[in-house]
Specification:
The protein has 454 residues and is mainly beta. The chain has no helices and 33 strands. A 5-stranded mixed beta sheet has the order 14-15-16-17-21, with no helix packed on it. The protein is globular, with a radius of gyration of 20 Å.
């Protein structure tokens, strides 16, 4: 999971609508093209994988597992976090928040509209650790900050929900109000930045993950104060630019895409989905149409950006980047829109010529043509998994993996029928998304980190 959030479900459950027809796409669907360094193509070095689409093109993880089958190892992870793991080289990297010291008098959040929150009762250590892929041993554990948090977050969330990322040279961890950090892959601290205090809607916590591209690290800071997006030199932490954003709290992680030879940073949020020039922070294009509390991250492929969310209402659209400039909300650059079956916490999976996404938090999987938004058959109910899913679907080796908070993972064939291949259960609860690399699948639960491999 890339967010600590669970909202009042009744606001969004049960809403339905019709697909809104727009001008048809004119581009020929092609291979997914996202910004990726060649050396990282076989790794899972960032949130949503090497192409930020949820697909691991070179991985072949197991199809079936249980507590007694195909578990290479599992280890207890200290503290609590919904930060998703990443895998690079010989290690899996994770972030966590560990309560320390004596229990103190509870501090309750006083934000307007607060509900289902947990009080802060302990100081916490904010930690990054490296786990050996070979045997599950912790190679190193680095305390980056010790703090008494000003927000407790939602009862289903955590104080460390931002996922780390690496470019193979440095490891970047963003703990929001607790700072942005760059470390060597051996755990040595290289630099740190204090970006201030983030006050999130309903005090429900923080979750947007950092993104690294070439020599720059990008961070989105959307909250109930002055929101912004900022770019930092990846080796020194020097701030290169900062662009103010007319946005309220969002938890979406940005993506960098290369379109027509020009890279841009795409950020999904309530008032607008925007594309930024990565060199200057200038807004290249923007499109309205989503609703409040954007958690789901955008994906890119076939020359298009796809963004959606679901809270007060359901919304999703596909944007053609060719010719996209300025406010494109009412133009033919918006190839299609949907107002039903759209995701809330989980992000879409773009796998070859199909865009997959879950309905709100439910076990209902939709499949559409990316360039037109037309459905590829009826939505599928994923029997065998609970109706509460925070993690995002992932894909590899012609299969799709969907993991729920009840410990179940449904494996579905990636073809036109999308038949269920297996339903696997573990004795843990999962909000973080899986990491896929080589023949391994890593699942980070409330208590354990699992390495699943045949």
């Amino acid at each position: 999971m890339n967010s600590p959030l669970l909202r009042s479900l009744a606001l969004a459950l049960g809403m339905a609508g019709q697909a809104l027809a727009a001008s048809p796409a004119t581009e020929t669907p092609g291979a997914v093209a996202a910004a990726i360094e060649p050396g990282l193509a076989r790794s899972w070095a960032q949130w949503r994988g090497p192409m930020a689409t949820g697909v691991a093109p070179h991985a072949d993880p197991p199809t079936e597992w249980s507590e007694t089958q195909h578990v290479r190892w599992k280890i207890a992870i200290p503290g609590k976090a919904h930060s998703s793991p990443i895998a690079y080289g010989d290690h899996v990297f994770l972030a966590t928040a560990i309560p320390i010291g004596e229990r103190q008098k509870p501090v309750y959040d006083r934000a307007t509209g607060t509900h289902d929150n947990v009080p802060v009762t302990h100081r916490h250590q904010f930690v990054v650790l490296a786990v050996r892929r070979l045997d599950g041993r912790i190679a190193w554990q680095k305390v980056l900050k010790e703090d008494f948090p000003h927000e407790g977050g939602h009862e289903t969330g955590s104080l460390a929900s931002n996922s780390p990322t690496t470019d193979g040279e440095l490891l970047y961890a963003h703990f929001g109000s607790r700072g942005l950090y760059a470390l060597g892959l051996d755990g040595a601290l290289k630099w740190q930045k204090d970006l201030g205090r983030m006050d999130t809607l309903h005090a429900h916590g923080e979750g947007s993950s950092p993104v690294v591209y070439r020599d720059t690290v990008f961070v989105v800071w959307d909250h109930e104060g002055d929101s912004f997006v900022a770019a930092f030199d990846k080796r020194t932490g020097a701030e290169r630019w900062r662009a103010a954003r007319d946005e309220k709290t969002s938890w979406s992680t940005p993506i960098v895409v290369e379109h027509a030879g020009k890279p841009q940073l795409v950020v999904s949020a309530t008032r607008r989905v925007r594309g930024y020039d990565i060199a200057s922070g200038k807004v290249l294009w923007e499109c309205a149409g989503l609703t409040d509390n954007v958690v789901s991250s955008p994906v890119y492929g076939h020359g298009m950006v796809f963004a959606g969310n679901s809270y007060y209402r359901q919304a999703m659209f596909g944007v053609r980047l060719d010719g996209a400039a300025g406010d494109i909300t009412s133009t033919d650059r918006v190839a299609w829109r949907l107002n039903r079956m759209t995701p809330y916490v989980s992000s879409p999976l773009l796998y070859d010529d199909t865009l997959y996404f879950l309905r709100h938090l439910q076990n209902i999987l939709s499949r559409v043509e990316p360039t037109t938004g037309k459905p590829r058959g009826e939505a599928l109910r994923l029997e065998g998994i609970g109706d509460m899913i925070f993690s995002s679907p992932v894909g590899a080796a012609g299969r799709i993996y969907v993991t729920g908070r009840d410990g179940s993972t449904v494996v579905v064939r990636h073809d036109r029928e999308n038949a269920i291949v297996a339903v696997n259960r573990l004795e843990d609860s999962f909000s973080a998304s899986a990491a896929l690399i080589d023949r391994e699948l890593y699942l980070r639960g409330e208590r354990w980190l699992y390495c699943l491999a045949e």
